[in-house]
Specification:
It is a single chain. This protein has 114 residues and is an all-beta fold. The chain has no helices and 11 strands. The protein is globular and about 45 Å long.
């Protein structure tokens, strides 16, 4: 059983910052990638950022220069530093890992007020 637990969400004013964390536990042999996705009300889930085991990162265009993903593969933890937040960043943020299969957390709400 693999469990992912996100934390760090909340309410912030536009221009503010938040740092999300996600800890994975359970029967995980080897994590290959760790990523963040988000889903706004009435919209489909979308990719935000990913980090490979080798440290390579990739970002959605709408967060480049504002968000930074980092990962602790030894500790099975992934982080998302979010700066210069905008109201359109309001969403539930999900972490996901890919090991033998892809696993998802339950999400953490991020609300950015204008």
């Amino acid at each position: 059983q693999v469990q992912l637990v996100e934390s760090g969400g909340g309410l912030v004013q536009a221009g503010g910052s938040l740092r999300l964390s996600c800890a994975a536990s359970g029967s995980i042999f080897r994590i290959n990638t760790m990523a963040w996705y988000r889903q706004a009300p009435g919209k489909q889930r979308e990719f935000v950022a990913i980090i490979t085991r080798g440290g390579t990162t990739n970002y959605a265009d709408f967060v480049k220069g504002r968000f930074a993903i980092s990962g602790d593969y030894a500790g099975n933890t992934v982080y998302l530093q979010m700066n210069s937040l905008k109201p359109e960043d309001t969403a539930v943020y999900y972490c996901s890992i890919r090991a033998a299969a892809q696993y998802w957390g339950r999400g953490t709400q991020v609300t950015v007020s204008s």
